[in-house]
Structures are given as structure tokens and as C-alpha cells.
Amino acid sequence: MSNYLTVVAVIVFANMLPAFAPPTWSLLLFFALRYQLNPVALVLSGVVSATIGRAVLAYSFRALRKWLPKGYVANMETMGAQIEKNPSRVFGLLALFFISPLSSAQLFEGAGIIKQIALKPLLLAFAAGRLITYSLYVSGAGVLKETSLGKIIADEITSPWAIAIQVLFIIGLIALGNVNWNRANRNGEKSPSS
Questions:
Q1: What is the secondary structure of 98-113 as a DSSP string?
Q2: What is the model's pLDDT at position 179?
Q3: Which among 25, 42, 43, 122 could bridge 37 via Cys, Cβ 3.0 to 4.6 Å?
């Protein structure tokens, strides 16, 4: 039982970090190979823990909004309003949280900043998607028994590509809030005379 509590604590903590955390799948593989845990219980623990961690991250960013530049928050709110107006955009956002193979930390940070975006549906989509991917990773863990898992995790965290992707996501999140979405929307709409 203490191994499962360790799994939960480690995965919740990793998913609360805003960037540069080890991917949850690598943590699950570590626990699967190191402690020979029940794969179903491990996957379910991982999904619940990752979802809790991302919820804490998103709600933390929601609480931190008041310390962010007002123009940045206003631009993010405008983008959120434009997403909310169009059902296909809302569906696209849910699909992004469901299937995103990339780090979701910045997705949850952005969603947390945008107050009118409902976080619960995003968390459910995230959990459903992770249930599938974590199941695939844990079921394939036996293949990695001959490989040093510490090396896999270290390579994933310290690889130039992993670091570059995290930095690009952070820059992307900053860039999204610096776009004047009111003006971008007006420029994208056709004028009545055309």
C-alpha cells in the first residue's frame, strides 16, 4: 500500500509543476518495473494523481491571475470568450486535452488563467486520454526490463529536445496572452461592405 501512496504523491507533485517535470508515463514505468505493482491499480492511480496535479496547477494559475499583467489577462479572457462562442472550438479544446501527446502543463496554465473556461470538462478529457495512454505505456513496460529506466527518465528530462519543447510551450503561453484577440477577431471578420 505504501508503494501506491508513493506513486500518488510523486505523480501529483510532478503534475503540479509548471514546467520541466518528468513525464508521468516515465514515472509510471519506473514504478511498474521497480516495484512490480498491479498494472490496473498503477494506471488508475496514475490517471487520478495526474488529474489532481493538473487541477491544482490550473486552479493555482487561476488564483495567480491578479499578479499577472492586466493586459495579458484581458487578452487571454478575450481568447477564452472567442473559444466559448463557437461549439466547434470548445470541442477542439476538449479534443486537445484528450489527445495531446505533448506536455499539458502549459495547456492547464492557460486554461487556469482564462476564468470563463470550465476546468472540469478539460480535466475529464485529460483523464480519459491519459487512461488510454498510460494503459499502453504500463502494458508495454515489460519490454523495457532490459533497459535502464533511470537512463530513460534522465534522457527524457535532460534531452535538448525535451527542454526546447518546454521552453517553446512557455513562450507560446506568453505569446497567446500578448495577442490582442479583440483586434485579431475584428481583423478576421469581413467588413459589411465586402
A1: HH--S--HHHHHHHHH
A2: 72
A3: 42
Residue 113 to residue 58: CA distance in whole angstroms: 8
Q: For residues 123-132, b (16+ Cβ closer than 10 Å) or e, as one string?
A: bebbbebbbe
Cβ atoms 86, 137 nearer than 8 A = no
Provide the residue count of the chain: 194
Contact 51, 44 (CB under 8 A): no
Which residues have CB under 8 Å from 153's CB, separation 6+? 22, 26, 27, 30
Q: Do 15 and 21 form a contact (C-beta atoms < 8 A)?
A: yes
Evaluate whether residue 153 is within a structural domain.
Answer: yes
Query: pLDDT digits over 129-185, tens only?
Result: 999 999 988 887 766 655 555 555 556 656 777 677 767 777 877 776 777 777 766
DSSP 6-61: HHHHHHHHHHHSSSSPPPHHHHHHHHHHHH---HHHHHHHHHHHHHHHHHHHHHHH
Which domain does 135 fall in, by range? 2-188
Cα–Cα distance list, 94 to 88, 130, 139, 161 (Å): 10, 13, 26, 26
pLDDT surpassing 90 at residue 9: yes
Question: Looking at the 3D structure of the chain, how many domains does it have?
Answer: 1
